[in-house]
Design brief:
The complex is a heterodimer of chains A (577) and B (318). Chain A has 577 residues and is α+β, with helices and mostly antiparallel strands. Chain A has 2 domains: 132 residues, 2-Layer Sandwich (Beta Polymerase, domain 2); 307 residues, Cytochrome-c3 Hydrogenase, chain B (Orthogonal Bundle). Chain A is built from 19 helices and 15 strands. In chain A, a hairpin with a 7-residue loop joins strand 14 and strand 15. Chain B is mostly helical and 318 residues long. Chain B has one domain. Helices cover 69% and strands 0% of the residues of chain B. Chain B is globular and about 60 Å long. Classes of the chains: A alpha+beta (577), B mainly alpha (318). Chains A and B meet through strand 8, helix 7, helix 8, helix 10 and helix 18 of A and helix 5, helix 8, helix 10 and helix 11 of B.
Chain lengths: 577, 318
């Protein structure tokens, strides 16, 4: 496990050896350095030239309530996380900013994908970015007062003024929703372009997403996605809930991924706390995660087919998904949001008879997948609708931060389970499917093959399920093991505190990225040595993919937009958090 | 000329028959789709859910008759009636048995083509009059699709006309006493079926509605019984196309052992079920792909079919 707190300094790339740059040790071993605000733009540009072409994350931390201050912290810290696919190396840069209205130069000239990330930081923290082309709020409504992830912003409605919506205010908010083409670089030409408002309520957007289309006939001249309708303050709640009680919130981020969301969160907390998870718990986790990957891909498969007009497949795939959910229900009791993983293991051991259920499913599924190949993938109309649609190259994919099947559909065989093994994935045999075309059909091919590979992994779990504990005996395991509490007073007190207050996780910070159902899902946790996270950052899978939508849709037609949306495979709760 | 009383009986029989069948189709389609999609479909109202269409009709009739304030009111109201009326008018020329049929027109086939041509206005006008962008896009697509498929729908039937030597549908049925036209006119049959599907805008030709992208397309703004008219009109359209395939290519009432009307009914139902099966199994092409298919494949096939048929008839007939 890459848990080395030891030597992060030597791993720093040469661009960071300049004076003024201070390295920092982290629990996750990602080379981390503080860079002065004046030099950050050039440093990042230099790093990009040096091969760090993927801007993995861009976020901020409000440091004003910190008790552990070891580093040159200001009031706010902006965090940049870069990744280099060639060397499988990453680097995290931090910038300390002071004052109530901090500001930084924009990064959009280096990475166009920084656009939405900077908007989010502005929206959530009030850090502005000079030179940003459209620095508007992105998750909160335009008329919102304050910046929600600042520590002085209330986290509960009960801490706020009673909610009132007078008519003038409502009119104001309504007006703020009006689409202004000028803001998006479109000259207003009502006589030439038709502006079509797709969503927030539309059968093709899979949730509350709004896309404004500028149409010339049925040809898309420009598409402007507007997100935030599904924003539920998942990150803010991470600062309010204890380490343990936050787990159910993670389930609801990518609500098709179920326990797959628990995984990066629990792994990150375990890194911070230094917990080793027992073998059996690892394999149970992998098995449930892969079952959820199949379930999520099945939902995608069916709805994608429906987006291009095929009515029937979705019913078949939901039938299959139901079988997975029956297994999940037998094991966890829950179905869509089992919240089954715990810090240090899983909630309980597998029930009697679980293996029969899983074996039945493994025997049942392959034939169904062959039927679907015939029904969907080899269907000429389906191919006609998806080939060459929403195409991008590998370079564009990296530039825009695409991960997961969308990246592998461009030919890069990059699976985080394989390249950065976590949770014991290195012990499993599976292939990483790729395709080369980079279009909607290629993405579909990759996902369909991934279902088969996940079945392989589940079978390995079934056949090699180790015996042993399902939960670690580490004192910070939550809820702690009960057996020894009646033997000595020390353990009893620990148990009492961990159950009533929640575990106290040592100060530090850790990121865990996993190969989620739809891309790279990362939880970046900062602990201030308390019973809850100081900052919970969810690097969501589909936020960057959604940002790429205009790029993919320009020049195509309205029906293609739906094919593209289907091929991205997004969940709006994951985009908006 | 038959006596007036018999004439009236024919009219009422056809009208009631078509409307009942159209309502029954709503049930049939939902049950069949469900059967093919591993689910049950409506099974609560009446035995096996058979009274579902009645419940649907009551619901639609009881709804407020609402016209959106931004719509072009007169056109908005007329549009759903057009599809309904033109489809029912077309049934006038369909001969069910030698004895059952409303009128016996010598230009029966032309009358049918004229009525479908008029019916195309329904979707176009509805899309235009709704005053909504989604409906407008649906209406535009309907105009493009229906007009281009109209062209070779007519052409595909000319082979049949050449062989039967008449536009009269009864004569056409009689001409098939020995050999159904589906054999010599197979190309015409395929083209007509495709065009008929497009005419009723059923999947895979439901671009004007295209639920996933245009919400409901040209009838997005319709509700209550005005929506119901589109709904029943669509099903009546399916019956019409199926019964015309029966008349033109499958020998109409001809068949051994069973009475003529039953043969007609069975042949028609076969195609109705086939149309429903198509809906369950196919995806929706993009509208430009559909246009390309129509103009580049269907039209040449229809023309070729006509030329070959005419040449053969000329050569053999002399």
């Amino acid at each position: 496990m890459r848990g080395a707190r030891a030597e992060p300094f030597e791993a720093l790339p040469s661009a960071l050896t300049a004076p003024g740059v201070t390295p920092q040790a982290t629990a996750d071993g990602v080379p981390t350095a503080w860079v002065p605000a004046g030099r950050i733009h050039d440093t990042l540009a230099q790093l990009k030239r040096d091969g760090y072409r993927f801007l993995y994350d861009l976020t901020a931390i409000d440091e004003r309530m910190r008790t552990h201050r070891e580093h040159p912290m200001g009031d706010f810290t902006v965090v940049y996380h870069l990744f280099d696919y060639d060397r499988n190396a990453d680097v995290r840069l931090k910038v300390a900013l002071c004052g109530d209205r901090p500001s930084l130069p924009t990064l959009t000239d280096v990475w166009p994908m920084a656009n939405w990330y900077e908007r989010e930081v502005w929206d959530m923290f009030g850090v502005s970015f000079e030179g940003h082309p459209n620095l508007y709020r992105i998750l909160m409504p335009r008329g919102w007062q304050g910046h929600p992830l600042r520590k002085d912003h209330p986290a509960r409605a009960t801490e706020m003024e009673p909610f009132r919506l007078p008519d003038e205010r409502q009119a104001e908010l309504q007006e703020a929703l009006r689409f202004r083409p000028e803001e998006w670089g479109l000259q207003r030409r009502e006589d030439e372009l038709l502006f079509l408002n797709v969503g927030p309520h539309h059968p093709g957007t899979h949730g509350v997403l709004r896309i404004v289309l500028a149409l010339d006939g049925e040809v898309i001249v420009e598409a402007v996605p507007e997100i935030g309708f599904h924003h539920r303050a998942a990150e803010k709640m991470g600062e309010r809930q204890t380490w343990h009680t936050y787990i159910p919130y993670t389930d609801r981020v990518d609500y098709l991924g179920g326990v797959m969301n628990n995984l990066p969160y629990c792994l990150a907390v375990e890194k911070l706390a230094g917990i080793e998870v027992p073998e059996r718990a690892l394999v149970i986790r992998v098995m449930l995660c892969e079952l959820f990957r199949i379930a999520s891909h099945l939902v995608w498969y069916g709805t994608f087919a429906q987006d291009v007009g095929a009515l029937s497949p979705v019913f078949y795939m939901f039938t299959d998904r139901e079988r997975i959910l029956e297994i999940i229900e037998a094991v966890c009791g829950g179905r869509l949001h089992p919240s089954w993983f715990r810090i240090g293991g899983v909630a309980a051991d597998l029930p009697e008879g679980w293996d029969g259920l899983v074996r039945d499913f493994l025997d049942y599924m392959p034939k169904r997948l062959r039927d679907y190949d015939q029904m969907v993938m080899r269907n000429r109309i389906f191919q006609g609708r998806t080939r060459g649609i929403g195409q991008y190259t590998l370079d564009e994919a990296i530039e825009w931060g695409v991960t997961g099947p969308g990246l592998r559909a461009c030919g890069l065989e990059w699976d985080w389970r394989r390249r950065r093994p976590y949770a014991g994935y290195d012990r499993f045999e599976f292939d990483v499917p790729t395709a080369t075309a980079g279009d909607a059909y290629a993405r579909a091919e990759v996902r369909v093959e991934e279902i088969r590979q996940s079945l392989r992994i589940v079978r390995q779990c079934l056949e090699h399920m180790p015996a042993g504990e399902y939960k670690s005996s580490h004192p910070l395991t939550t809820p702690p093991r009960k057996e020894r509490t009646m033997q000595d007073i020390e353990t009893l007190i620990h148990h009492f505190l961990t159950v009533s207050w929640g575990p106290v996780v040592p100060a530090g910070e850790a990121l865990q990225m996993v190969e989620g159902t739809k891309g790279n899902n990362g939880y970046y946790l900062v602990s201030d040595g308390g019973t809850h996270a100081y900052r919970t950052r969810i690097r969501s899978m589909t936020f960057p993919h959604m940002q790429m939508l205009p790029q993919m849709a320009r020049g195509l037609m309205v029906p293609d937009l739906l094919a593209i949306l289907g091929s991205i495979d997004f969940v709006l709760a994951d985009v908006d958090r | 000329m038959r006596p007036l009383s018999l004439q009236l009986v024919s009219v009422v029989t056809v009208l009631v028959g078509v409307l009942t069948l159209a309502a029954g189709l709503i049930w049939l389609e939902r049950r069949l789709l469900a059967f093919w999609q591993e689910r049950l479909g409506p099974n609560r109202v009446g035995p096996a859910g058979l009274l579902q269409p009645v419940a649907d009709a009551i619901k639609l009739l009881a709804k407020e008759d609402w016209v959106p304030p931004f719509a072009d009111r007169p056109v908005f109201v007329i549009a759903p009636a057009i599809v309904f009326v033109t489809v029912l008018m077309s049934f006038a020329v369909v001969p069910i048995t030698p004895g059952i049929g409303v009128v016996d027109l010598d230009v029966g086939l032309l009358f049918f083509l004229a009525m479908t041509g008029l019916g195309a206005y329904s979707a176009v006008l509805a899309g235009w009059a709704s005053g909504s962008k989604y409906a407008l896009l649906g209406g535009l697509r309907a105009a493009a699709q229906l007009l281009s498929y109209e062209v070779f729908m007519g052409l595909s039937l000319m082979g049949v006309v050449v062989m039967a030597g008449s536009f009269n549908l009864r004569d056409i049925v009689d001409a098939q006493r020995d050999l159904w036209f589906i054999v010599p006119q197979f190309a015409g049959f395929v083209v007509f079926m495709v065009a008929g599907l497009a005419e009723t805008h059923r999947l895979p030709f439901d671009m004007p509605e295209a639920e996933a992208e245009l919400v409901a397309g040209f009838h997005a703004e319709y509700s209550g019984m005005k929506f119901g008219m589109f709904f029943v009109g669509e099903y009546a359209g399916i019956i019409l196309i199926s019964s015309l395939i029966t008349v033109l290519f499958l020998g109409g009432w001809h068949g051994p052992w069973l009475p003529g009307w039953l043969w007609f009914f069975l042949k028609t139902m076969l195609f109705i079920c086939f149309f429903i099966l198509l809906r369950a199994s196919l995806a929706r092409p993009r509208n430009d792909q559909l246009m390309a298919y129509g103009w580049k494949v269907m039209l040449p096939v229809a023309l070729l079919n006509l030329m070959v048929t005419a040449a053969v008839v000329l050569a053999v007939g002399d």
